[in-house]
Amino acid sequence: MNAILSGLFGLVIGSFLNVCVYRLPRDLSVVRPRSFCPGCGKGIAWFDNIPVLSFLFLRGRCRGCQTHIPLRYPLVEVITGAAFFAAVRIYGATPRAATVCVFAAILVELSFSDLETRILPDEFTLGGAAVGLVFAWFVPVSSAPGLPSLTEALLAAVVASGALWLVGKLYRLIRRKEGLGGGDVRMVAMMGAFLGIEGVLLALILGSVLGAVIGLAYILLTSKDAGAYELPFGTFLGLGALAVALFGQPVLHWYATFGI
């Protein structure tokens, strides 16, 4: 029952994340005005703003102007709800589950924002890193709670983001063009604050592999110029980090036990 209630709450949080995905890259307030249709500008009534259900009832169109509602809206809500459900199902009604839920919400916003606009808002990267460090004090990353956990989270944030920044610098020196944005570096710092050094490294590996495989497949299928295509790396980092947050503990435990 706790997992189901958490999933329903996640749907509501996902609805708010949709507001952030649309408004933050456009420097709009996420508080005012209330939800409106980007097509006709009219405010959306509460009964047309119910997560997932309103999209289905309206058949994916605005009630006023009949403009298509992007599929991103129900996807964000469903993924957030599913992540909240999984977190409580896996970790129970515990502080760790709450930490994973907050982390998942941040990752969903950043993943879809990068996919749609190639922008990773500082409110969720830098702000998320600060939130992750606060959580690290109370919910241990891997070491004892309190100062040891906070130190590990801070070290992971600095080391992982610094390593990615260095890779981006080397790429620019060799290829004479940008390979990584500052938003990606800040996002990795946020991931390190939540996951610790082992978790963020695993998330980086997963995200890089997903980005390489899916990005290459997309370029081949759409015949895009590989040299000019801007990969939404933050999206794949988000997928990798979410997988680690929900399912990475067994992998990390196995590596710590049997890894060489």
Layout of helices and strands:
Blueprint: H1 2-23, H2 53-57, H3 72-91, H4 95-117, H5 122-138, H6 147-175, H7 182-222, H8 233-258
Helix pairs in contact: 1-3, 1-4, 3-4, 4-5, 4-8, 5-6, 5-7, 6-7, 7-8
Fraction of helical residues: over 70%
SS class: mainly alpha
Report the C-alpha radius of gyration, rounded: 19 Å
The low-pLDDT segments are: none
Could you please describe the fold and organization of this structure?
The termini are far apart. The longest helix has 41 residues. This protein is mostly helical and 260 residues long. Helices cover 70% and strands 0% of the residues. The protein is globular.
Salient structural properties:
single chain; 260 residues; mainly alpha; 8 helices
Question: Outline of this structure?
Answer:
Helix content is 70%, strand content 0%. The chain has 260 residues and is mainly α.
